């Protein structure tokens, strides 16, 4: 094989990795066109594993669809909100399936703390979004 062809073949995986990273940043691609999962509902009619799968699917979809603008603080907040909501949903799921007082206390603490952090992030986003529109 010619050296130029070998060099091109060696670069292809690097180009593909770069394209994947760029695609992930913009949250585009085939997955973004898929219908989002239904909202999470903590229901005692489902086994715990199914509730965890549901919570993960909603969280992953929320993080993939987070509106990003390339500003680190903004992008961090928009992706962390669904991540924290995922923790809240998982804690709700375990509350339906355990009587262990230590785990129940942990789950209740997660719900309270993560919801508080979601509220802080929503307030930050609201303050900073209004600043961006007035510039």
What characteristics describe this protein?
135 residues; 2 domains; flat; DUF305_CopM-like; DUF305 domain-containing protein; single chain; Ferritin-like; mainly alpha
Which helices and strands occur, and which strands form pairs?
Blueprint: H1 3-26, H2 48-64, H3 72-97, H4 101-134
Helix pairs in contact: 2-3, 3-4
Signal peptide: 1-21
Domain DUF305: 73-133
Organism: Duganella rivi
Describe this structure in words.
- This protein has helices at 3-26, 48-64, 72-97, 101-134.
- The protein contains four helices and no strands.
- With 135 residues, the protein is mainly α.
- It is 75% helix and 0% strand.
- The protein folds into two domains: 1-34; 36-134, no CATH class.
- The longest helix is centred in the last third of the chain and has 34 residues, at 101-134.
- α2 (48-64) runs antiparallel to α3 and α3 packs antiparallel against α4.
- It comes from Duganella rivi.
- Pfam families: DUF305.
